[in-house]
Amino acid sequence: MRDSISSCCGSVADNNPQEKEQGHVNNHTDDNRVTSCCAAEPAIASPLSGSQRVDSGFRTPIRIMQMDCPTEEALIRKKLGTMPDVISLEFNLMQRVLMVEHTEDALEAVLAGIRSLGFEPEVSGAQGELPPKTEPKKSWWPLGLAAVAALMAEVVGWLEPINGLSGWLSGELSNNGLAAVLALIAVGLSGLTTYKKGWVAVRHGDLNINALMSIAVTGALILGQWPEAAMVMVLFTLAELIEAKSLDRARNAIAGLMNLAPEKATVQQSDGSWLEVAAATVAVGSRVRVKPGERIALDGEIVRGRSTLNQAPITGESLPVDKAEGDQVYAGTINESGSFEYKVSAAADDSALARIIHAVEEAQGAKAPTQRFVDQFARLYTPIVFFIALAVAVVPPLLMGGDWFDWVYKALVLLVIACPCALVISTPVTIVSGLAAAARRGILIKGGVYLEEGHKLSWLALDKTGTLTHGKPVLTEFEVLIDPRAAQTAGHTIEGCYQLAASLAMRSDHPVSQAIAKAEAANFVNVSTAQKSPGASLNVDSFEAIPGRGVKGRIKGRSYSLGNHRLIEESGLCSSALEARLGQLEREGKSVVMLVDDQQVLALFAVADTVKATSREAVAELHQLGIKTIMLTGDNQHTATAIAQQVGIDEARGNQLPEDKLAAITALEKDATVGMVGDGINDAPALARAQIGFAMGAMGSDTAIETADVALMDDDLRKVPAFVRLSRQTRRILIQNIALALGIKAVFLVLTVMGLGTMWMAVFADMGASLLVVGNGLRLLRK
Ligand SMILES: Nc1ncnc2c1ncn2[C@@H]1O[C@H](COP(=O)(O)OP(=O)(O)OP(=O)(O)O)[C@@H](O)[C@H]1O
Ligand SMILES: [Cu+]
């Protein structure tokens, strides 16, 4: 039977160097605790690559299928950690892969060390990847038989007073002898693995749960507590099995995301025919055909046909999206109506979906604060209880004339209670469930720490453009500000001004510039009198973007800039008349930029952006959750205030340069937990500074997934309150679980000392507690 979560119990001698790293998010190494604990189900391991040369030596991934619990990790760490040729160890219990960094010829010694612990290490050969591997299924019958034997031992124990029955069963055996035989059968059938593992641990000076259980059961056998010993062993094994099963559900929740993308795709062959092939083999640039109702296998761009797609598996948003030629489609999404062909833009293992899964997997590795605490606690708890048990067994009989039998028995019950399993597994199960639940809603959380800290969020700073608004402003006003006759002589016709501005704007991808570049010139310029094509762009030399202000460049030997009030002010070309007009437009929520040459303001352009319908709702939801909102925008104060009013934001700050945004976050953080949502580069420092940085529209952008703490797959701001709610719920469950686990232990401790607790009751309680906390954690998934 699987050695499992129960064995996630901290071990006495596991003092782990990595623990000292109090990094914010510590991705690898031992941090993969229990998430990864123990699978009973056949688990699929991903392909393993070969040794890699690095500066300090070699990095070799080693697969150890028997290693999926911290118990095993502790053993291996102990064994290898002291070898001089081993530079570092990184455990990925979830994948069951150990990454060893070692000196050149040390690999054989490392493998031998692992083998000496009773594990079978696998490394990939010279030819590269080791194929994925399926763990063989284990049979239930030995445990079933053991359970029957244990029950019979119990029954025989009860029947003891009835004389003659055992004689009827067997002429030779007394009742007690029969119970003993049955108990030994039960322990032998169910407990061999536990004994073996316990023995390996003890030999290596480690006191893990397998060792404790072996000691407890052996003690009970020595005391002649036959039915009890049998029951304890059977229940313990059963508990592990059930726990492993439920933990697998948490583990599979993430693997389940991977199954969103179908394994096969219909790809066009060189002769033009269509063939269904494995998605993993499809090259970038291939053409794939999709039928109605089919799931998309790879990321790509539609080259023929149109359809509506349900992107809920990735974005969490189930409203179908229309897609036509040139639009991006994503692996894992569902084609609803039409059929279309698309050109593959990323290999299967590089799709947006694959990156999401990778990020979630990494996130599990990063320990949440509660988990750190619990692990540390468990590390102390187990040895402390062990020594108390030892004292209980020895001191009262020796010093107070207590009954040896009584006190040794009490000590054994204490050993069972010494298992902090329920406590240790409660946290990771909850966090993993939360992470998976979030991923299913299109919220990618980059570490348990953010999920856990999210409940504290009290301020949310938001950027305006693209976050609250659509970020696609359109040109609403174009006004030439110089006298038409003067303009004529200076060579600045109306069309000319427009053309100059558009030529500058075309070179920038700032939304305001884009609006000017894309505007239908005909709506603003009298085309009949215009030059042949007013939209045609002019040559721009020494083009330059001026952050937070605008752009500038030389056209036909003269320099021009296109920028906001700040820019005009700084170049000394502002006037009160202009300011009045600016104020007017800005109060309507429009952003204004002006075209200037080195002497005067030639023209002004006002653009209006629309507020996303979801922004208003999101802000209202945030306020309901007690979170205050503040808008930080590079745009001017009037526009900021106007937009803030439209969406109901508490406070609006305009004219914010990146460093101002950063300063604003820093100031808020003095007495609050602050989150920030943004998209642009001008938000990057503030996003990095905020305790939780949210990036929107992450599906289309790798950098957003990589740099944000929380990536929202689409740009629906309501995902932020959804995140906060999930985070608060996770937090509640974490606290419930810790209280449950410790509470049950405390009750048993008291019962035992009072002489009321029996050993199998303790196992039962322990199992019950573990199941309770796992079930409680998994509740998050069901939402
Ligand atoms: N490349 C550009 N082209 C045109 N205008 C620009 C450009 N860069 C900046 N501006 C002007 O400067 C203002 C501030 O720009 P900035 O990029 O700091 O913030 P933003 O994009 O308007 O708003 P937010 O901070 O909400 O994203 C813009 O509103 C715009 O008027
Ligand atoms: Cu001014």
UniProtKB/TrEMBL annotation:
Q: Which Gene3D superfamilies match?
A: Calcium-transporting ATPase, cytoplasmic domain N, Calcium-transporting ATPase, cytoplasmic transduction domain A, HAD superfamily/HAD-like
InterPro entries per UniProt: ATPase_P-typ_cyto_dom_N, ATPase_P-typ_P_site, ATPase_P-typ_TM_dom_sf, ATPase_P-typ_transduc_dom_A_sf, ATPase_P-type_domA, Cation_Transport_ATPase_IB, HAD-like_sf, HAD_sf
A Pfam family (short name) is: Hydrolase
| Keywords tagged on the record | ATP-binding, Cell membrane, Copper, Copper transport, Ion transport, Membrane, Metal-binding, Nucleotide-binding, Translocase, Transmembrane, Transmembrane helix, Transport
User: Which transformation does this protein catalyse, written as a reaction?
Assistant: Zn(2+)(in) + ATP + H2O = Zn(2+)(out) + ADP + phosphate + H(+); Cu(+)(in) + ATP + H2O = Cu(+)(out) + ADP + phosphate + H(+)
**Compartment(s) of residence:** Cell membrane; Endomembrane system
Q: Which domain of life is it from?
A: Bacteria
**Membrane topology type, per the record?**
Multi-pass membrane protein
Give residue ranges for domain HMA: 58-122
Q: Where is the composition biased (Basic and acidic residues)?
A: 17-29
For this UniProt entry, the molecular function terms from Gene Ontology, in alphabetical order, are: ATP binding; ATP hydrolysis activity; cadmium ion transmembrane transporter activity; metal ion binding; P-type monovalent copper transporter activity; P-type zinc transporter activity
Q: Where are the transmembrane segments?
A: 140-158, 178-195, 380-399, 411-438, 733-754, 760-781
Polar residues composition-biased segments: 1-16
Q: Which range is the signal sequence, renumbered to this chain?
A: none
User: Region Disordered: which residues?
Assistant: 1-29
The UniProt entry lists the main location of this chain as membrane
Mind telling me which GO cellular component terms the entry cites? endomembrane system; plasma membrane
Q: Which family does it belong to?
A: Belongs to the cation transport ATPase (P-type) (TC 3.A.3) family. Type IB subfamily.
- Name listed for the protein in its UniProt record: Cd2+/Zn2+-exporting ATPase
Specify the species: Neptunomonas qingdaonensis
